[in-house]
Amino acid sequence: MTTNTNHTNHTTNHTTNHTNHTTNHTNHTTNTTNTAHTVDTTGTVNTTDSRLNFAKAAPKAFRALIGFDAAAREGLDPALVELIQIRASHLNHCAYCLHMHTNDARKAGESEDRLHLVAVWREARHFFTPKEQAALALTEAVTLVADAGVPADVYAEAAAHFPEEELAHVLALILTINTWNRVALSTGKVAGTDER
User: Fold this and answer.
1) How far is it, in rounded angstroms, from Cα 72 to Cα 65?
2) From the centroid of its chain, how far is CA 183?
3) Contacts for 174 with CB less than 8 Å, ≥ 6 apart
4) Which of 7, 18, 118, 186 fits a 20 to 30 Å CA distance from 125?
5) φ/ψ of residue 37, rounded to 5
6) What is the pLDDT of residue 44?
7) Is the pLDDT of residue 32 over 70?
8) Position 192 confidence tier, pLDDT thresholds 50, 70, 90
9) Nearest-5° Cα angle at 165, 125 to 146
Protein backbone atom coordinates (compact mmCIF):
# COMPACT_ATOMS: atom_id res chain seq x y z
CA MET A 1 0.00 0.00 0.00
CA THR A 2 1.38 3.42 -0.93
CA THR A 3 0.50 6.48 1.10
CA ASN A 4 2.56 9.07 -0.78
CA THR A 5 -0.61 10.28 -2.57
CA ASN A 6 -2.29 10.81 0.78
CA HIS A 7 0.75 12.80 1.85
CA THR A 8 0.06 15.46 -0.81
CA ASN A 9 -3.54 15.79 0.34
CA HIS A 10 -2.60 17.02 3.81
CA THR A 11 0.33 19.30 2.91
CA THR A 12 -1.97 22.32 2.55
CA ASN A 13 -3.40 21.77 6.03
CA HIS A 14 0.11 21.61 7.47
CA THR A 15 0.98 25.03 6.07
CA THR A 16 -1.72 26.77 8.09
CA ASN A 17 -0.80 25.00 11.32
CA HIS A 18 2.90 25.73 10.94
CA THR A 19 2.32 29.42 10.55
CA ASN A 20 1.19 29.37 14.17
CA HIS A 21 3.77 26.85 15.38
CA THR A 22 6.37 29.37 16.55
CA THR A 23 3.73 30.97 18.76
CA ASN A 24 3.09 27.57 20.31
CA HIS A 25 6.59 27.44 21.78
CA THR A 26 5.95 30.81 23.41
CA ASN A 27 2.49 29.91 24.71
CA HIS A 28 3.63 26.91 26.70
CA THR A 29 6.05 28.87 28.89
CA THR A 30 3.81 31.09 31.01
CA ASN A 31 4.70 30.01 34.57
CA THR A 32 7.80 31.28 36.36
CA THR A 33 8.82 27.76 37.37
CA ASN A 34 8.10 24.27 36.14
CA THR A 35 7.38 21.33 38.37
CA ALA A 36 9.34 18.51 36.84
CA HIS A 37 8.07 14.97 37.01
CA THR A 38 11.15 12.84 37.63
CA VAL A 39 11.20 9.11 38.26
CA ASP A 40 13.62 7.64 40.79
CA THR A 41 15.26 4.22 40.57
CA THR A 42 12.25 2.55 42.22
CA GLY A 43 9.86 3.95 39.61
CA THR A 44 8.32 6.48 42.01
CA VAL A 45 7.26 9.73 40.37
CA ASN A 46 8.60 12.86 42.10
CA THR A 47 6.68 16.07 41.36
CA THR A 48 8.49 18.36 43.79
CA ASP A 49 11.42 19.18 41.50
CA SER A 50 10.85 22.89 40.78
CA ARG A 51 12.72 24.18 37.75
CA LEU A 52 13.11 27.52 36.02
CA ASN A 53 11.01 28.76 33.15
CA PHE A 54 13.52 29.25 30.35
CA ALA A 55 11.44 31.85 28.48
CA LYS A 56 11.11 34.04 31.58
CA ALA A 57 14.63 33.51 32.93
CA ALA A 58 16.44 34.08 29.61
CA PRO A 59 13.99 35.98 27.37
CA LYS A 60 16.58 37.18 24.85
CA ALA A 61 17.94 33.66 24.37
CA PHE A 62 14.39 32.29 24.13
CA ARG A 63 13.39 34.89 21.51
CA ALA A 64 16.56 34.10 19.54
CA LEU A 65 15.59 30.43 19.55
CA ILE A 66 12.07 31.30 18.40
CA GLY A 67 13.59 33.32 15.55
CA PHE A 68 15.99 30.50 14.62
CA ASP A 69 13.10 28.03 14.60
CA ALA A 70 10.97 30.27 12.35
CA ALA A 71 13.87 30.90 9.95
CA ALA A 72 14.74 27.19 9.82
CA ARG A 73 11.28 26.04 8.73
CA GLU A 74 10.91 28.76 6.10
CA GLY A 75 10.26 27.19 2.69
CA LEU A 76 10.13 23.61 3.99
CA ASP A 77 7.21 21.25 3.42
CA PRO A 78 5.20 21.45 6.67
CA ALA A 79 4.63 17.67 6.70
CA LEU A 80 8.39 17.14 6.54
CA VAL A 81 8.91 19.65 9.35
CA GLU A 82 6.73 17.58 11.69
CA LEU A 83 8.35 14.27 10.70
CA ILE A 84 11.78 15.69 11.53
CA GLN A 85 10.58 17.10 14.86
CA ILE A 86 8.84 13.86 15.80
CA ARG A 87 11.85 11.68 14.96
CA ALA A 88 14.33 13.85 16.88
CA SER A 89 11.96 13.94 19.85
CA HIS A 90 11.78 10.11 19.80
CA LEU A 91 15.56 9.84 19.83
CA ASN A 92 15.95 12.42 22.62
CA HIS A 93 13.16 10.80 24.68
CA CYS A 94 11.39 14.14 24.87
CA ALA A 95 7.77 13.28 25.69
CA TYR A 96 6.81 16.95 25.89
CA CYS A 97 7.89 17.76 22.31
CA LEU A 98 6.75 14.39 20.98
CA HIS A 99 3.25 15.00 22.35
CA MET A 100 3.22 18.52 20.91
CA HIS A 101 4.43 17.61 17.43
CA THR A 102 2.39 14.45 16.96
CA ASN A 103 -0.70 16.45 17.92
CA ASP A 104 0.28 19.28 15.57
CA ALA A 105 0.82 16.80 12.74
CA ARG A 106 -2.48 15.03 13.45
CA LYS A 107 -4.40 18.33 13.49
CA ALA A 108 -2.80 19.23 10.16
CA GLY A 109 -4.03 16.01 8.58
CA GLU A 110 -1.10 13.63 8.99
CA SER A 111 -2.17 9.97 8.86
CA GLU A 112 -2.14 7.82 11.98
CA ASP A 113 -0.19 5.17 10.05
CA ARG A 114 2.67 7.54 9.32
CA LEU A 115 2.68 8.95 12.86
CA HIS A 116 2.96 5.44 14.31
CA LEU A 117 5.67 4.41 11.87
CA VAL A 118 8.07 7.38 12.05
CA ALA A 119 10.17 5.63 14.70
CA VAL A 120 10.57 2.55 12.47
CA TRP A 121 10.53 4.25 9.07
CA ARG A 122 13.25 1.99 7.65
CA GLU A 123 10.93 -1.00 8.03
CA ALA A 124 8.01 0.96 6.51
CA ARG A 125 9.68 2.89 3.70
CA HIS A 126 6.61 2.69 1.46
CA PHE A 127 4.83 5.10 3.83
CA PHE A 128 7.48 7.80 3.28
CA THR A 129 8.80 9.49 0.16
CA PRO A 130 12.50 9.05 -0.69
CA LYS A 131 13.00 12.72 0.23
CA GLU A 132 11.38 12.18 3.65
CA GLN A 133 13.51 9.08 4.20
CA ALA A 134 16.67 11.06 3.43
CA ALA A 135 15.60 13.77 5.89
CA LEU A 136 14.78 11.21 8.60
CA ALA A 137 18.18 9.53 8.17
CA LEU A 138 19.90 12.92 8.43
CA THR A 139 17.80 13.77 11.50
CA GLU A 140 18.96 10.58 13.19
CA ALA A 141 22.62 11.15 12.30
CA VAL A 142 22.67 14.76 13.51
CA THR A 143 20.66 13.99 16.67
CA LEU A 144 22.99 11.09 17.54
CA VAL A 145 26.09 12.89 16.26
CA ALA A 146 28.21 11.80 19.26
CA ASP A 147 27.80 8.15 18.23
CA ALA A 148 29.28 8.23 14.73
CA GLY A 149 29.26 11.76 13.39
CA VAL A 150 27.22 12.36 10.24
CA PRO A 151 28.19 9.54 7.85
CA ALA A 152 29.13 10.61 4.32
CA ASP A 153 26.50 8.35 2.72
CA VAL A 154 23.71 9.82 4.87
CA TYR A 155 24.77 13.36 4.01
CA ALA A 156 25.14 12.49 0.30
CA GLU A 157 21.65 10.98 0.18
CA ALA A 158 20.16 14.10 1.76
CA ALA A 159 22.13 16.32 -0.64
CA ALA A 160 20.77 14.28 -3.55
CA HIS A 161 17.18 15.05 -2.52
CA PHE A 162 17.47 18.65 -1.35
CA PRO A 163 18.97 21.67 -3.13
CA GLU A 164 21.66 23.32 -1.02
CA GLU A 165 19.46 26.07 0.46
CA GLU A 166 16.68 23.63 1.37
CA LEU A 167 19.21 21.22 2.85
CA ALA A 168 20.56 24.05 5.00
CA HIS A 169 17.03 24.69 6.27
CA VAL A 170 16.53 20.98 7.01
CA LEU A 171 19.78 20.98 8.98
CA ALA A 172 18.75 24.16 10.82
CA LEU A 173 15.40 22.58 11.71
CA ILE A 174 17.16 19.47 13.06
CA LEU A 175 19.32 21.75 15.20
CA THR A 176 16.34 23.72 16.52
CA ILE A 177 14.26 20.67 17.50
CA ASN A 178 17.28 19.19 19.26
CA THR A 179 17.60 22.45 21.17
CA TRP A 180 13.87 22.53 22.01
CA ASN A 181 14.13 18.92 23.23
CA ARG A 182 17.00 19.84 25.52
CA VAL A 183 15.22 22.91 26.85
CA ALA A 184 12.10 20.86 27.59
CA LEU A 185 14.01 17.98 29.21
CA SER A 186 16.33 20.12 31.32
CA THR A 187 13.54 22.38 32.59
CA GLY A 188 11.20 19.48 33.35
CA LYS A 189 8.42 20.21 30.84
CA VAL A 190 5.57 17.71 31.22
CA ALA A 191 3.89 16.14 28.19
CA GLY A 192 0.39 17.45 27.59
CA THR A 193 0.87 20.76 29.43
CA ASP A 194 1.71 23.00 26.48
CA GLU A 195 -1.42 25.17 27.06
CA ARG A 196 -2.67 25.05 23.49
Assistant:
1) 10
2) 13
3) 84, 88, 138, 139, 142, 143
4) 18
5) -105, 100
6) 54
7) no
8) confident
9) 60
Q: Which of 12-26, 31-45, 79-93 has the lowest mean pLDDT?
A: 12-26
C-alpha torsion angle, residues 103, 174, 5, 153 (rounded to 10): -150
What phi, psi does 127 have (nearest 5°)? -85, -10
C-alpha Rg value of the chain to the nearest Å: 17
Local structure of 149: helix, strand or coil: coil
What single DSSP character describes residue 127?
Answer: G
Contacts of 50 (CB under 8 A, 6+ apart): 33, 34, 35, 36
Separation CA 85–CA 101 (nearest Å): 7
Alpha-carbon torsion angle 20, 23, 28, 31, nearest 10: -150
Q: What is the pLDDT of residue 31?
A: 41
- Of 35, 75, 77, nearest to 193 by C-alpha is 35
184 or 28: whose pLDDT is higher? 184
